[in-house]
Amino acid sequence: MVRASASPPDADASSRVTLRSARPYAHSMSKPERFKEEIGWLKALCALLTAGLTSLVVWLVQNYGIVNRVIFLMALFGLSVLAGALAAVVVRLYRCFKILEAL
User: Fold this and answer.
1) pLDDT tens-digit profile of 76-91?
2) Residue 74 belongs to a domain
3) Contacts of 46 (CB under 8 A, 6+ apart)
4) Could you give phi then psi for residue 71, rounded to 5 degrees?
5) How far apart are CA 100 and CA 38, in angstroms?
6) What CA–CA distance (Å, rounded) separates 54 from 44?
Protein backbone atom coordinates (compact mmCIF):
# COMPACT_ATOMS: atom_id res chain seq x y z
CA MET A 1 0.00 0.00 0.00
CA VAL A 2 1.34 3.42 -1.00
CA ARG A 3 0.86 6.37 1.32
CA ALA A 4 0.25 9.83 -0.05
CA SER A 5 2.57 12.40 1.44
CA ALA A 6 1.65 16.02 2.12
CA SER A 7 4.47 17.36 -0.05
CA PRO A 8 6.39 15.89 -2.95
CA PRO A 9 9.63 14.21 -1.90
CA ASP A 10 11.78 16.49 -4.07
CA ALA A 11 10.38 19.73 -2.64
CA ASP A 12 12.63 21.42 -0.12
CA ALA A 13 11.84 24.14 2.39
CA SER A 14 13.46 26.91 0.36
CA SER A 15 11.08 26.46 -2.59
CA ARG A 16 7.97 27.01 -0.51
CA VAL A 17 6.39 30.45 -0.44
CA THR A 18 4.90 31.58 2.82
CA LEU A 19 2.35 34.30 3.29
CA ARG A 20 4.81 36.39 5.26
CA SER A 21 7.36 36.47 2.45
CA ALA A 22 4.84 37.38 -0.26
CA ARG A 23 4.26 41.12 -0.59
CA PRO A 24 1.02 42.58 -1.88
CA TYR A 25 1.21 44.05 -5.37
CA ALA A 26 -0.10 47.49 -4.44
CA HIS A 27 2.62 48.17 -1.88
CA SER A 28 5.40 47.66 -4.39
CA MET A 29 4.22 50.67 -6.45
CA SER A 30 4.52 54.35 -5.66
CA LYS A 31 1.44 56.32 -4.66
CA PRO A 32 1.00 58.14 -7.98
CA GLU A 33 1.27 54.84 -9.84
CA ARG A 34 -1.37 53.25 -7.58
CA PHE A 35 -3.77 56.14 -8.23
CA LYS A 36 -3.11 55.99 -11.98
CA GLU A 37 -3.92 52.28 -11.96
CA GLU A 38 -7.06 52.86 -9.90
CA ILE A 39 -8.13 55.58 -12.34
CA GLY A 40 -7.66 53.13 -15.20
CA TRP A 41 -9.85 50.50 -13.53
CA LEU A 42 -12.48 53.09 -12.65
CA LYS A 43 -12.56 54.33 -16.24
CA ALA A 44 -13.14 50.76 -17.45
CA LEU A 45 -15.92 50.30 -14.88
CA CYS A 46 -17.42 53.62 -15.93
CA ALA A 47 -17.47 52.46 -19.57
CA LEU A 48 -19.18 49.18 -18.62
CA LEU A 49 -21.80 50.94 -16.52
CA THR A 50 -22.44 53.47 -19.28
CA ALA A 51 -22.91 50.68 -21.83
CA GLY A 52 -25.32 48.85 -19.52
CA LEU A 53 -27.23 52.03 -18.77
CA THR A 54 -27.50 52.92 -22.45
CA SER A 55 -28.68 49.46 -23.46
CA LEU A 56 -31.30 49.42 -20.71
CA VAL A 57 -32.62 52.85 -21.75
CA VAL A 58 -32.81 51.71 -25.39
CA TRP A 59 -34.66 48.53 -24.36
CA LEU A 60 -37.12 50.55 -22.28
CA VAL A 61 -37.81 52.94 -25.15
CA GLN A 62 -38.28 50.14 -27.69
CA ASN A 63 -40.56 48.05 -25.47
CA TYR A 64 -42.51 50.80 -23.72
CA GLY A 65 -45.92 49.88 -25.09
CA ILE A 66 -45.65 46.10 -25.15
CA VAL A 67 -43.86 45.18 -21.93
CA ASN A 68 -45.55 44.02 -18.73
CA ARG A 69 -45.77 46.67 -15.99
CA VAL A 70 -43.84 44.58 -13.47
CA ILE A 71 -40.97 44.06 -15.89
CA PHE A 72 -41.04 47.75 -16.79
CA LEU A 73 -40.84 48.74 -13.11
CA MET A 74 -38.01 46.27 -12.54
CA ALA A 75 -36.16 47.77 -15.51
CA LEU A 76 -36.67 51.26 -14.08
CA PHE A 77 -35.29 50.04 -10.75
CA GLY A 78 -32.28 48.54 -12.55
CA LEU A 79 -31.84 51.81 -14.39
CA SER A 80 -31.74 53.75 -11.13
CA VAL A 81 -29.26 51.27 -9.60
CA LEU A 82 -26.95 51.54 -12.62
CA ALA A 83 -27.22 55.34 -12.59
CA GLY A 84 -26.36 55.43 -8.89
CA ALA A 85 -23.39 53.11 -9.39
CA LEU A 86 -22.18 55.27 -12.28
CA ALA A 87 -22.48 58.40 -10.15
CA ALA A 88 -20.48 56.74 -7.36
CA VAL A 89 -17.73 55.73 -9.79
CA VAL A 90 -17.55 59.26 -11.22
CA VAL A 91 -17.27 60.74 -7.71
CA ARG A 92 -14.48 58.28 -6.90
CA LEU A 93 -12.72 59.23 -10.15
CA TYR A 94 -12.79 62.92 -9.27
CA ARG A 95 -11.40 62.16 -5.81
CA CYS A 96 -8.56 60.17 -7.36
CA PHE A 97 -7.84 63.05 -9.75
CA LYS A 98 -7.70 65.51 -6.83
CA ILE A 99 -5.37 63.27 -4.82
CA LEU A 100 -3.16 62.71 -7.87
CA GLU A 101 -2.92 66.47 -8.46
CA ALA A 102 -1.88 66.99 -4.85
CA LEU A 103 0.97 64.49 -5.18
Assistant:
1) 999 999 999 999 999 9
2) yes
3) 86, 89, 90, 93
4) -65, -40
5) 11
6) 15
Nearest-CA neighbor of 83 among 43, 46, 38, 41? 46
Domain for residue 3, yes or no? Answer: no
The answer to the question of residue 70 being in a domain is yes
Q: Measured between alpha carbons, how far is 103 from 97 in angstroms, rounded to an integer?
A: 10
What is the C-alpha to C-alpha distance for residues 87 and 99, in angstroms, rounded to an integer?
19
Domains identified in the chain, total number: 1
Quote the domain boundaries for residue 39. 29-102
Report the residue count for the chain: 103
For residue range 25-72, list pLDDT tens digits in order: 556 778 888 888 888 899 999 999 999 999 999 999 998 889 899 999
* 36 is a domain residue: yes
State the DSSP string of the chain: -PPPPSS-TT--GGG---TTTPPPSGGGS-HHHHHHHHHHHHHHHHHHHHHHHHHHHHHHHHTTTTS-HHHHHHHHHHHHHHHHHHHHHHHHHHHHHHHHHH-
